[in-house]
């Protein structure tokens, strides 16, 4: 997300689609990613009468309980973060995401499949009558910090989008992990997109008792058991990388309607979807984002 002089709006070159199970609903859903001339990303629930739309916007966040769910006029779309991370990190500002179910497919638990799908579809620049429109750019004018128990999130003024993440789990082979990177399409694809979602073994039954992770399996999540992970690590410090992936997917909600870029140093310490939302809400409350 470097601040290049040219900051064009972009959409997909052609439609593309993929089907998969929803992590929490257990419902098989087909997601169709379509070019969109208008700025912004929208979800369309094709399975509901009138195919209602749900805008990708902070004001539409309905729940952050183990996933980010967007709602508008009583219509919901769940587990949006991995797809939104891929779209935003790859600079797709205009996209129509059609779903025939309530939840974005989890695929293999990472964003790698979404990156592959976007690459296959191709990306093209959106031109306006003047030649080429320029995306807005948000900057922080002062530090913004929120905390909630063990976790906290801090945003500092910066000249790129830099993300620092730290996690700490009471599992010997995971322990404390940190990650620090400057976000770009290349760094996202190589360092964040392959990282899969995960859960502690002790969390599985409580989550199931709440009606969650109905579609969870070894094919789409890592289980952190007492003796080791349920499958070999795909990439070093995979839990920290996946947490950074979630940060990108949630922060995209600040920019989903206007296609803006963001310059800030985001530091997420033992944070999750709820704290990401609190940080964005605090930015809006204080008016600390400067647009240019």
Helices, strands, pairings?
Blueprint: E1 10-12, E2 16-21, E3 28-35, E4 40-45, E5 53-55, E6 61-63, E7 69-72, E8 75-77, H1 81-89, E9 94-99, H2 112-121, E10 123-125, E11 137-140, E12 144-148, E13 151-156, E14 161-168, E15 176-182, H3 185-192, E16 198-200, H4 204-209, E17 222-224, H5 238-251, E18 261-269, H6 273-286, E19 289-291
- Looking at how many chains there are and whether they match, the oligomeric state comes to single chain
CATH class of the largest domain: Alpha Beta
Q: Any idea how many domains? A: 2
Beta-strand share of residues:
25-35%
Runs in which pLDDT lies below 50 for 5 or more consecutive residues are: none
The radius of gyration over CA amounts to: 18 Å
The total of beta strands comes to: 19
Shape: globular
What structural class results from the helix and strand content?
alpha+beta
State the fourth-level CATH superfamily of the largest domain.
Answer: lpxc deacetylase, domain 2
Describe the biggest sheet? 7 strands, mixed
- The SSE string, one letter per element, is EEEEEEEEHEHEEEEEEHEHEHEHE
Overall helicity: 10-25%
Short description:
It is built from 6 helices and 19 strands. With about 290 residues, the chain is α+β, with helices and mostly antiparallel strands.
What can you tell me about this protein's structure?
With 292 residues, this protein is of the alpha+beta class. It folds into two domains: 116 residues, Ribosomal Protein S5, domain 2; 155 residues, lpxc deacetylase, domain 1, CATH 3.30.1700. It has six helices and 19 strands. The strands form five sheets. Strands 11, 12, 13, 14, 15, 18 and 19 form a seven-stranded mixed β-sheet that branches. A five-stranded mixed β-sheet has the order 2-3-9-4-5, with helices on one face. Strand 12 and strand 13 form a beta hairpin. Helix 1 crosses helix 2 and helix 1 packs across helix 5. The longest helix is centred in the C-terminal third of the chain and has 14 residues. The chain is globular, with a radius of gyration of 18 Å. It starts with 9 loop residues before the first strand and ends with a strand. The relative contact order is 0.22.
């Amino acid at each position: 997300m470097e601040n290049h002089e040219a900051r064009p709006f972009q959409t997909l070159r052609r439609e593309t689609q993929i089907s998969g199970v929803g992590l929490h609903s257990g419902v098989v859903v087909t997601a169709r990613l379509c070019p969109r001339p208008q700025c912004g990303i929208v979800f369309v629930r094709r399975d509901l009468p009138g195919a209602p739309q749900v805008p990708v916007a902070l004001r539409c966040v309905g729940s952050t309980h183990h996933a980010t769910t967007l709602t508008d006029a009583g219509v919901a779309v769940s587990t949006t973060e991995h797809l939104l991370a891929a779209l935003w990190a790859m600079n797709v500002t205009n996209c129509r995401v059609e779903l025939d179910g309530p939840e974005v497919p989890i695929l293999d638990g990472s964003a790698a499949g979404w990156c592959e799908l976007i690459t296959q579809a191709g990306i093209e620049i959106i031109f306006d009558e003047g030649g080429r429109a320029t995306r807005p750019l948000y900057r922080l004018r002062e530090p913004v910090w929120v905390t909630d128990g063990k976790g906290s999130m801090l945003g500092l003024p910066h000249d790129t989008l830099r993300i620092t993440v730290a996690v700490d789990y009471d599992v010997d082979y995971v322990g404390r992990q940190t990650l620090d990177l400057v976000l770009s399409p290349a760094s996202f694809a190589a360092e964040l997109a392959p990282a899969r979602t995960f859960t502690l073994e002790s969390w599985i039954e409580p989550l199931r008792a709440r009606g969650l992770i109905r579609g969870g399996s070894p094919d789409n999540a890592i289980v952190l058991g007492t003796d080791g992970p349920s499958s070999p690590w795909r990439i070093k410090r995979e839990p920290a990388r996946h947490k950074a992936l979630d940060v990108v997917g949630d922060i995209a909600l600040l920019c989903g309607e206007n296609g803006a870029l963001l310059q800030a140093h985001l530091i997420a310490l033992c944070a999750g979807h709820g704290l990401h939302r609190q940080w964005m809400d605090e930015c809006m409350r204080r008016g600390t984002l400067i647009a240019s």
